[in-house]
Amino acid sequence: MTDFFKGIAPLQFDPASSELAFRHYDADEVVLGKRMEDHLRFAAAWWHSFAWPGGDPFGGQTFERPWFGDTMDLARLKADVAFEMFDILNVPFFCWHDADIRPEGASFAESRRNFEEIVDYIIGKMEGSKTKLLWGTANLFSHRRFMAGAATNPDPDIFAWSAATVKSCLDATQKMGGQNYVLWGGREGYETLLNTDLKRERQQAGRFLQMVVEYKHKIGFKGAILVEPKPQEPSKHQYDFDVATVYGFLKEFGLEGEVQMNIEQGHAILAGHSFEHELALAASLGIFGSIDMNRNDYQSGWDTDQFPNNVPEVALTYYEVLKAGGFTTGGTNFDAKLRRQSLDPVDLIAGHAGAMDVCARGLKAAAAMLEDGTLEAMRAERYAGWDSAEAQAMLTGDLAGAAARVEAEGLDPQPRSGRQEILENIVNRFV
Does the pTM exceed 0.90? Predict the structure, then answer.
């Protein structure tokens, strides 16, 4: 045991408590026939919780953590503290990038050895904990070598380095029993078209993803391969802008049956969408996989990665998740970080606990809306005309046939209310 979280006991479900506790998240509460823990499948992010130093664009490190530093002993200490937090929060999963859990070596080989050693150490920690790996991923964006991208880089040696890194991370994810593997192209984009070959870079990115899928099958990895869309920041444009863009990319390279989406709330907002839009679209396209749960500060226009605290937004999120059939291998990863003034260990626990409560309230509201059925009944009624034989025949016919109906049947269609305000009022009954 370390003393980082000294004095902080494992959190309990106790709505009346004046101490740190869960007030809405009861892991064993049954919602729509399933335990709440099994619905939400919470995961803690290693990078924001244990690797992020508290900096921002105008200032550096504010956090002082006893494990900060580039040694294996400190990496092991970081893992010890991480599992203490997982146990306090009773979260079933965690997620990592390779660079989060191991120190950078002087060469790729040294970094790989460091990584493999710490993976084995974490596996040992997992044997004494309920917390398992939701997904692993590679950091192909922080080091200066990736300033022009990883798979899309104009330098083929960096493509090779990136491939070697992903191979190591996919091997480790399988060894740790991870249920998914995520690719997030933080630098896969451009800053100016003046030095960019768009067609070449897209082809490189497509072939890279094909290689990942091929390797997944070669090693027998049974988990899902997930791509996480993001529209911009730091690049001017990124090739994985949103769910629709990624789906077109997957279709282009024959991967739509192999790859699913890990969708983040903050990235959806930066793309000009709502979170629920991206989830609904992914589900309709058959590529919904997992979510990163956080929020942006709507005044900043930046990906601020704050813990969620807006129950109505979260309720609409889980409404779409439940409509999609819920998570299979995916889950709710808190890709969220403390504010840089929140320095204390208790802040880290409180941030996660509050977010878990918000998600629990959102899930229960979403389940109640589905059980009530009014929203879905009104949606079905709006499209009921399409259930007729004439309407279905029109979809399998031609333009002339559709046009002929107008005069033959004396059609004079009139607009009907979409009832948006009524629908919004219904949602507000539950949130």
Answer: yes
